[in-house]
Design brief:
The two termini are 28 Å apart. The protein is elongated, with a radius of gyration of 20 Å. The chain has eight helices and no strands. It is mainly alpha-helical. Helix 6 packs antiparallel against helix 7. The chain has one domain. 79% of the residues lie in helices and 0% in strands.
Length: 238
């Protein structure tokens, strides 16, 4: 099992830097974008852009959208394509149990994406908070660095939701026997969760994190059901 896991993780090495780079640069870019807009726009309706927690939520939402799109591309190549069409016959011939191999692939993808997305967003947040504390753009009563915990909670919720959406999309792709379905589902879920996430981050971080964990649990159940389906599935089923 450990050997299989190490092999599956090695298959994802080439994606690590890209995941980290998208997370880091997208987060940093939009943190500063919204901060600058908030600094120079005096409209009362834009008070949300003069609050560091809200800025973090908005930037994280965009990072999530970007990474879901890239993540669905990876998961199609790494996971979905192996469980649709004629590829199933070759994969099911492996001496490893079907569901065991499926869960190993899921775990490998989960650990890789979680670590490098969280690392990218967290380093971006830390850099932003330090520079904004030393050379503030926003005129606020408290230094930006005091919001470190809130930024970390936002990052965790964002990563959990990103991975959940990617896996839910892949499950749809496997059940519909289509990599296109994975991409379409991912885009639909981005539209739904993207707007909800942006509003939720502004209102209550604890509720947002709890909701993200709940969605992750539902995703885990869906993955378990899919693994059981794969165990019982006929190789020739299309």
């Amino acid at each position: 099992m450990k050997k299989n896991y190490s092999f599956e993780v090695s298959q994802l090495k080439k994606y690590r830097l890209v995941i980290f780079s998208i997370a880091f640069f997208t987060q940093l870019l939009f943190l500063y974008f919204f901060t600058i807009v908030g600094r120079f726009d005096s409209a009362e309706s834009d008070d949300i852009l003069r609050n560091y927690i809200s800025l973090s939520g908005l930037a994280s939402t965009i990072s999530m959208c970007m990474l879901v799109v890239y993540g669905t591309v990876i998961v199609n190549r790494f996971l979905v394509k192996n469980y649709i069409g004629e590829n199933k016959a070759r994969l099911y011939a492996y001496p490893v149990g079907r569901s065991q191999l499926f869960h190993t692939k899921v775990t490998a993808f989960l650990s890789t994406f979680f670590i490098f997305q969280l690392l990218g967003i967290s380093l971006s947040n830390i850099l932003f908070l330090i520079t904004e504390t030393l050379f503030p753009i926003l005129d606020t009563a408290q230094p930006a660095v005091v919001y470190l915990v809130e930024f970390f909670v936002t990052a965790i919720a964002t990563v959990v939701l990103t991975i959940s959406i990617i896996f839910l999309s892949s499950i749809v792709g496997i059940h519909l026997n289509s990599t296109v379905a994975t991409m379409v589902t991912g885009i639909i879920l981005i539209v739904i969760f993207g707007n909800i996430l942006a509003m939720a981050f502004v209102s209550n971080l604890l509720i947002t994190l709890s909701s993200a964990i709940l969605i992750a649990v539902i995703t885990g159940i869906a993955i378990k059901i899919t693994g059981s389906k794969i165990d019982k599935e006929d190789v020739l089923t299309r």
